[in-house]
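Practice problem: predict the structure.
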Amino acid sequence: MTPEVREGDFDVIRQRLDFYGLNFYNGIYDNAGPKELQEKKVKAGGNFQDKPQSHPEAVYQVLHMLVEKYGVDIPIYMTENGLAQEDSKNLEELLEDEERIAYLRQILIWLHKAMEDGIPVKGYYVWSLLDNFEWSAGYTLRYGLYYTDYKTKQRIPKKSAEWYREVIRQRGV
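Answer:
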């Protein structure tokens, strides 16, 4: 299973990166011991499909850690970020995704605060435009700003799509 390493490979892969891509979803405290879990009143980490507590404010801490602890000194792009919504037969419920809006609003606020601190965040990409097949959850969770009817392929904007369009238009929350 080990890939073949050829002469010159390490010269290629040690080149300076153009940017750092951060995927961030919930800020759960993974690998925290019993004392930390008790003090922070959080659940242990695990698969996000188990819907652990969400901590959007942790993105601020992660961004500072990348720069201050790990020396990331290149542009940072949040390449994936979103909130899962459990699938439902109730279309109206799926289209009224207030929880996603609240989560995305908090993420953007904390990103902006980090940027004000000098963290070089240069871009943000919400996951996802459309509901899709998720690698570990199949079609049971929906991340899209647009509802996707998997049988007819019809796409309907959720409330979060309208909200995010306004965020982009106004250039902020």
